[in-house]
Automatic annotation (TrEMBL), chain A:
Organism for this UniProt entry: Flavimobilis marinus
Cellular compartments annotated: Cell membrane
Transmembrane region(s): 42-65, 109-131, 140-163, 169-189, 217-241, 274-294
GO cellular component terms listed in the entry, alphabetical order: plasma membrane
Record's keyword annotation contains Transmembrane helix: yes
Protein name: Cellobiose ABC transporter membrane protein
Membrane topology: Multi-pass membrane protein
Swiss-Prot/TrEMBL GO biological process terms: transmembrane transport
Chief site of localization: membrane
CDD domains: TM_PBP2
From TrEMBL, chain B:
PANTHER family referenced in this protein's UniProt entry, alphabetically: ABC TRANSPORTER PERMEASE PROTEIN, INNER MEMBRANE ABC TRANSPORTER PERMEASE PROTEIN YCJO
KW Transport (keyword) present: yes
Ranges annotated as spanning the membrane: 43-66, 98-124, 136-157, 183-207, 242-259, 299-318
Protein name: Cellobiose ABC transporter membrane protein
Cellular compartments annotated: Cell membrane
Species per Swiss-Prot/TrEMBL record: Flavimobilis marinus
SUPFAM superfamilies the record matches: MetI-like
UniProtKB/TrEMBL annotation, chain C:
Protein known as: Cellobiose-binding protein
Annotated Pfam families: SBP_bac_8
UniProt-listed SUPFAM superfamilies: Periplasmic binding protein-like II (SSF53850)
Superkingdom of origin: Bacteria
Signal peptide per UniProt: 1-30
Length: 309, 333, 434
């Protein structure tokens, strides 16, 4: 079974041809899986290195739990405590009383979800066009796309707010969603990914067989793009979830995202770090749970997508 | 610029992208429609990006350019000053300091970050138990909020009783005042940047590695290549477009570096008492938001923009030269 | 197994649905926020994290006492994030709350440059209140043509906080009365610091930072960075340079712990661990010390007047109404009530923010603080507030103060000579403000 056939494509000619032409260059992907990865089982050294790295990456998150479960004053002692204290629930309760974090989490899921889905679809389309299609002005338009990535954004908030005020969107979740629906980063990423992973002859074969470019996209490009899309989706979701600078300006605490709600926690002349950490924990854990629950689908898709489609 | 950025196709995709397309089989009206679709589709695909950019990116960009010609505080009168803001910038020691610090911190953080990410991705590509868990852990630094990372790294690099100094004391070294030293503060920031972005890049590399056909490894194995040789001769060339992507993105990120040094300084854009870690991003932020001089900040933004363009061009040029070298060596990979 | 076709189609549907959803929820959100569902008036209040109004239960109380009023309150943690957002909103003329907090370092900018963006409170029901505050506080919020753009909440009268246990260990007098007798001038304080250094516990310095010392000294001055005509005078202000050099010398000779205030995590830790024994103490610092030193620090600290009983001020804030507000009258009523003596006294009880309303001084005069060995905090801070000079606030105060504080830090930790540091600081100030 070839990649293309497995997607249930409705252009049998193209499928057969491309599978044939592919076969000459590659072994069939199914074989790739059966034989391939087995040759590269990880040794104990790999496990050790990965365990150490994972520990380093997770440690600050653990420390956040420690800080959220002790009074602020204990965290500034030296040496600081390394084990969780007894106040986790108290601090979380206080944080939840101060801000409507449940609504913020719902809003953040909405914003990040919409942004992620839109980014995946639109950036893959544009990336495909820049990577594999021929059209006039392609070089110029791609250069322009890259160019927009290089614009420093910290100042953009003043004019962006003016634009949103013009559209009457300030305070509205759309003001956070719209500007990030499709990003130059995503377009560039998908272009590079497809240049590397999508053989030209697949596209040509489909074209010869009379498939429109949209059909080619749907049935050939998307399946091959899936590993790249999986990673882009994860990164986009996290970026949207943690986006801070602009949402804090445009949204307010009556309709916040998580980061906006957190920004309003623990006020007073002494920002109470314990409450802030407890709130941060509540605001971060849902994402982590989603990644863990769907990790196999999201990250696992990196492998599976290339094979099964 | 595009030409330099579009890396050569990986060897597997040996078809010549420049050859003329074979004519489609359809004739008549359907054929016309078909050809029309093929011609217009690319523009439709890239249109959403340009629409969003036109709606929300273009005006801020032009506004910033316009404002850089004024003395401008929010909610005060604007005064036309022509190029004075740029003159001020190029005669300002603090600007050159920020430029220099951006470059040193950029090199200190980007190079190890990308190399580590490549190694990590290679390891994650093996067959193993708990693969999903390991991969999800890669995104953890990026998922941990900035506030939480601040707390941790402030503690880690604290002068009195921080872990870094505690470790030094174990091997008999004196405590370091990390945040107030010059090199030490830059190293600390590079560590934070590396921690935050290594897993991010590793995932990107990992996705790229999945698209390298397995049979090339098998063939290499038959030829007696060890794992390292396979990595150098198959993985690296196969990843070229992805590597190019991460280099360009990291270069842009390093030039705009802002969040981590701000966080390290406790939320102020001073970048230390003698501005020892004030990056261009911090310098611009300080002008615009601490001092309220938006005109000057806009000038910094434009100069930063041009700097990035130059850096990306240099990057691409180096890549291209190396490709030529490789080809003139016989292109044996 | 999902096919690519189906999943992609599904995502498109989900996306369209979600967009509609946000559009709907957005439009309901955007419906006129000035009146609520039952016709009651909704007042929005947006502050940064140092007011203590909500913590003292004032908003709930006001809602209970005034039927038909609902208060929507939000508070941003850091003023450095709050102010840019507020400026952006003011600039576009939309999105500001009915009542906005203004930090004292920003009031000169508001009065000088933004008079047309804020409501003149002397033309509202809050007008009767204007005379109730310490003179300089009200003056600073009044434009040259007599518009009052903000009413004062708290001020920051000064004292010196010190660790009795560390003073005892070093053989210094730890009784506040005794200290008061010894400290007639800042030079006396420096002399005491030298004495402390000679017998101090290991790893402990007298002051926390040269910058903190400097800010305490200049807080007693009337003319600091600007003169009454609004001209930048710091370069030739002998009092400022003197304070700078005194502090720099202290930093150079090891009398400070070399910890940047509010930014260095080791500074926070120092309140408990005792890396420093003395800190210049605006009234709001009391709460900070309690938070950072925790329960373990109770009874270790005490507080006395600035040397020679000088008065001074560091910090404080205002409440103002943006011109764009649609509920000016109701907002003015709320401001007048919030800054009334009774309410300010309550905020002091709860959070330690010292009243700017002179009538409240009597209410707080008897306050003592158990944590600080029952020190008469009310008496000390009232005295400081009453004898404080009328401070002239300028548009660039924040920039100037930051530049000189950083310059002092560079003397402490980067080995820059005091003369060079002063020159650097001044050149930064003139580069930015000149």
């Amino acid at each position: 079974m070839s990649t293309v056939a497995a997607t249930g494509v409705v252009v049998p000619d193209a499928a057969a041809r491309s599978a044939a032409s592919r076969g000459a260059l590659y072994p069939a992907p199914a074989r790739r899986r059966r034989r391939g990865r087995g040759n590269h089982d990880a040794g104990w050294g790999t496990y050790v290195m990965l365990l150490v790295t994972a520990a380093l990456f997770i440690a600050p998150f653990y420390y956040m739990i420690v800080a959220a479960s002790r009074p602020m004053s204990e965290m500034v002692q030296s040496p600081p405590p390394l084990t969780p204290g007894p106040y986790l629930w108290d601090n979380i309760t206080t944080a939840l009383e101060q801000q409507n974090i449940a609504k913020a989490i719902a809003n953040s899921f909405l914003v990040s979800g919409v942004v992620t889905v839109a980014t995946l679809l639109l950036c893959t389309l544009a990336g495909f066009a820049f990577a594999k299609l021929r059209f006039k002005g392609k070089k110029f338009l791609f250069t322009l796309t890259l160019g927009t990535m290089m614009i420093p954004t910290t100042l953009g908030v003043v004019p962006l707010y003016m634009v949103m005020a013009e559209f009457n969107l300030t305070g509205n979740l759309l003001s956070v969603i719209l500007p990030t629906l499709v990003t130059a980063f995503g377009v560039f990423f998908m272009r590079q990914y497809l240049i590397q992973s999508l053989p030209d002859e697949l596209i040509e074969a489909a074209r010869v067989d009379g498939a429109t470019s949209l059909r080619t996209f749907w049935s050939i490009v998307l399946p091959i793009a899936r590993p790249g899309m999986a990673v882009l989706g994860m990164l986009t979701f996290m970026t949207a979830w943690n986006d801070f600078f602009w949402p804090v300006i445009t949204l307010n605490s009556s309709n916040p995202t998580v980061q906006v709600a957190l920004n309003n926690l623990g006020s007073g002349y002494v920002p109470d770090t314990a409450i802030i950490m407890a709130g941060t924990l509540v605001g971060t854990v849902p994402v982590i749970i989603v990644f863990l629950l769907f990790g196999r689908q999201i990250v696992g898709g990196i492998i599976a997508g290339a094979v099964k489609g | 610029m595009t030409a330099t950025v579009s890396a050569p196709n990986p060897p597997a995709a040996s078809a010549d992208p420049g050859r003329p397309a074979p004519p489609p089989r359809h004739r008549g009206l359907r054929g016309l429609l078909f050809r029309w679709e093929a011609k217009s589709a690319p523009y439709v695909y890239i249109a959403p990006f340009f629409l969003v950019f036109a709606a929300f990116g273009l005006f801020p960009l032009l506004y910033t350019a316009w404002v850089s010609l004024f003395e401008f505080r929010l909610n005060s009168e604007m005064t036309w000053v022509g190029l004075d803001n740029f003159v001020w910038l190029f005669t300002n020691e603090a600007f050159y300091n920020a430029l220099f610090k951006t470059i040193t911190i950029g090199i200190l953080s980007t190079v190890p970050q990308l190399m580590l990410a490549l190694g990590l991705a290679h390891l994650l590509n093996y067959n193993m138990r708990g693969r999903t868990l390991f991969r999800v852990s890669m995104i953890m630094p990026y998922a941990t909020s900035v506030a939480a990372s601040t707390l941790v790294f402030a503690q880690l690099f604290g002068r009195d009783g921080g872990f870094a100094n505690w470790t030094l004391s174990l091997v008999g070294l004196d405590a370091i005042d990390w945040r107030n030293g010059d090199i030490s503060a830059q190293i600390a920031i590079a560590v934070i940047v590396t921690w935050r972005w290594t897993g991010y890049n590793a995932l990107i590399y990992l996705a790229g590695m999945q698209s390298i056909p397995q049979d090339r490894y098998e063939a290499a194995q038959i030829d007696g290549a060890n794992r390292w040789q396979q990595f150098v001769h198959i993985t690296l060339p196969g990843l070229r477009p992805t590597i190019l992507f991460t280099i360009v993105v990291s270069t842009i990120g390093a030039t705009q570096l802002f969040g981590e040094p701000l966080l390290f300084g406790g939320g102020t854009p001073n970048g230390g008492a003698v501005n020892q870690y004030q990056t261009l991003g911090l310098f611009m932020y300080q002008q615009g938001w601490e001092f309220g001089s938006l005109g000057r900040a806009a000038a910094v933004a434009w100069v930063t923009f041009l700097l990035i363009v130059v850096l990306v061009l240099i990057n691409a040029l180096i890549m291209r030269l190396r490709t030529r070298e490789r080809l003139s060596d016989g292109g044996s990979e | 197994m999902f096919t690519a076709r189906r999943s992609a189609g599904a995502t498109a549907v989900i996306m369209a649905g979600a967009l509609t959803l946000t559009a709907c929820s957005g439009s309901s959100e955007a419906s006129d926020p000035t009146t609520g569902a039952n016709g009651e008036t909704v007042l929005t209040v947006s502050l940064f994290g140092t007011f203590g109004l909500d913590e003292a239960g004032l908003f709930d109380q006001y809602e209970a006492e005034n039927e038909g009023i609902t208060i929507q309150y939000e508070s941003t943690q850091g003023e450095d994030k709050y102010w840019p957002a507020l400026q952006t909103k003011l600039n576009s003329g939309s999105g500001t709350a009915d009542i906005q907090g203004i930090e004292v370092a920003r009031i000169a900018d508001v009065v000088t440059n933004q008079a047309d963006l804020w409501t003149d409170l002397s033309q509202t029901v809050a007008a009767d209140r204007v005379g109730d505050y310490v003179d300089w506080k009200a003056d600073a919020a009044t434009t040259t043509d007599g518009k009052v753009l903000g009413l004062g909440t708290d001020i920051g009268p000064m004292g010196l906080c010190y660790r009795t246990d560390l003073y005892d260990a070093a053989g210094l007098p730890s009784d506040p009365e005794e200290l008061k007798q010894r400290l007639g001038s800042w030079d006396d304080v420096i002399a005491l610091a030298e004495e402390y250094k000679a017998n101090a516990p290991e790893g402990s310095a007298f002051f926390d930072s040269a910058g903190g010392l400097y800010n305490a000294i200049v807080s007693t001055e009337s003319e600091i960075y600007y003169n009454a005509a609004g001209e930048l005078v710091v370069e030739n202000n002998a009092a400022v340079k003197d304070a700078f050099m005194k502090s720099a010398a202290a930093g150079q000779s090891g009398l400070t712990a070399k910890l940047e205030q509010f930014k260095d995590p080791s500074w926070d830790a120092g309140f408990g661990s005792g890396t420093f024994a003395t800190i210049a103490c605006p009234s709001w610092m009391i709460g900070y010390i309690k938070g950072k030193a925790g329960d373990a620090g109770s009874g270790q600290w005490n507080i006395t007047e600035l040397p020679g009983g000088q008065g001074g001020n560091w910090g404080g804030a205002y409440l103002g109404i943006p011109e764009a507000s649609k509920n000016k009258e109701e907002a003015a009523k709320l401001i007048a009530w919030l800054t009334d003596a009774e309410q300010q006294a309550k905020v002091f009880e709860v959070g330690g923010n010292f009243p700017s309303n002179t009538e409240a001084f009597d209410d707080v005069a008897d306050s003592t603080d158990e944590y600080f060995n029952d020190a008469p905090t009310g008496e000390i801070f009232s005295a400081s507030a009453q004898s404080a000079p009328t401070q002239i606030l300028g548009v660039g105060d924040g920039v100037a103060k930051n530049a000189l504080t950083q310059a002092l830090l560079s003397v402490e930790v980067n080995g820059v000579s005091p003369e060079d540091a002063w020159a650097n600081g001044i050149s930064k100030i003139t580069n930015q403000l000149g």
